[in-house]
Please model this.
Amino acid sequence: MKDNTFRVSRDLLRKYDRVGPRYTSYPTVPEWSADFGADEYRRALDLASKGDSPLSLYFHLPFCSKRCFYCGCTTVISSRADRADTYIDVLDKEIEQVASHLGSRNKVAQLHWGGGTPTFLYNRQIERLFGLISDHFQINPDAELAIEVDPRVTTHEQLTLLRQLGFNRVSMGVQDLTPEVQEAIGRNQTAEETEDLINHCRSLKYDGINVDLIYGLPRQTVDNFAQTIAEVIRMGADRVAVYSFAFLPSVKSHQKLIDVQTLPPADTKYELFAMTVEKFLEAGYVQIGMDHFARPDDDLARSLAEGQLYRNFMGYTTRKGSDSIGFGMSSISELAGCFSQNVSKLGEYTEMINKLDLAAFRGCRLSDDDKIRQQVILSLMCNFKLSFDDIEKQFGIDSRKYFSLELGEMKQFIDDGLAAMDKDTITVLPRGRILVRNIAMVFDAYLRNKGKEGSATFSRTI
Model:
């Protein structure tokens, strides 16, 4: 029998289906300013040098040999290995400059290589980049070292080398195993390729194997996506991220290769996600945030149970409070109460690093109000709960008075059975989790000031 505790009626889906942020940051990227450039980022690094908590480092490795039609990442399509050599040369300079500003603050609790396809790099390039990082930063013995891989191009030898270097978590792009869906998105990947790589990771004793899926892709149906879910569960992934497909052809022009007529309508897209939740919960996974699932013995599941889950640009994490520093084109840093992003074009990034030492082109410094609202939104998005007392203790405000307007707006979610509120706590109920973005938007002062109109760069909440 199906669990209906998290199912939302079609009328409510239509009511709340709108454009809105995913809140990987607050303030969201459209609110950042080009006035925050390399000089401002340099000052933020100098301020961060006075901290003592371990850092999180992200490296954007943008190269792919072929572009998938659905992709929303910042990539460089190339078959030339020497382009990665040149890119690592530039990363070398950026690492050196950033480290020089951080001084003795060099301990690392989290290292993530994303892309693109990081395993576009040959083994010698992987070793070289890791060596450059190790020359300037001290990776803690218990640090999480994660890398995103494409099972179609990643070799056993690469995974063996990465494990030897200390990487302990692998995130595999799968998206969908249905052949007709793969044809529609320009990504042919067999279940056998994926399972072979998972098994090899198991033999190497990686601590965690993550799988990424996407719902809402062209030619997806509830039945064929259910088969993909069943295969991923059978393969034994430790964590699964199930992202909503953001169809934004005006922003990502290559998405115009997708026939819009083949995309599932909003009602079907919701059924895809509802089925996904049912399948993973039935298999014993714990829902993490709005679109992740983890085995109950996983660190994320334990952190959720303790109300200690956190989220940054690298995803859901247990590493709360560490400043995050991004390296490479388009990468984002969050440190010293600031956000900063590098330029997204390879040529510009290379030129700015060579000339200015840093490549930041936009960002923001958080106001006191931003910091309060950031914590509120993080609490809702990560732990499905907001404690007024916790906010008062952290920021010294009367939270109920501070958010009196917002708490009035919460009434519609309470009346619709999506959330509950008592004198101390707002709780997102199971059926409200798919709409947690909508609930978080109530506390977004920038959306309020714009008359609740979401940016065209945001995807729809359903």
User: Anything to note?
Assistant: Residues 38 and 358 are 6 Å apart (CA to CA). The mean pLDDT is 92. Residues 81-102 form the longest helix (22 residues). The radius of gyration is 22 Å.
